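Pilot study result, target chain (141 residues):
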Amino acid sequence: MVKNTSRGPGQRQLRVGEMIRRRLSEILSRGEIHDPAFDAMSITIGEVSVSSDLKIATVYVMPLLGSGNVEAAVEALARHRGILRKKVSEEVILRHAPDLRFRRDETFDRLDETRRMFSHPTVLRDVAAPEDGEDDPASDA
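Predicted structure:
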């Protein structure tokens, strides 16, 4: 038997994470949790990462279109962690309801940094330069 030595999440972790993400999105969009912080902003759940034992779910959140303070969104969600966990466990049937941990979604920050990096003059020059041996008629012979 060959053991998978990759460090990435397994199919079950990905599937459970997506189910939790969808359920949390439904709960927030329907206004099932009453908190003035949620009235002031719409929250986007970008990803849910689940531990290998499925006992911890890290939820990456961001206010939609920058409509609010990320820290306030994380704090509000953390305040209601227990009720959110209960509501998620009603729909996502697992042996143990995962502990929910809320974090800032930094995906967009990383995308911005990547765009800045690719627009740097040195990188643009290197990308535009032909590879050694390309466009060289002698290399076709």
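One observation from the pilot: The chain has a mean pLDDT of 80. A full batch analysis is planned for the follow-on phase.
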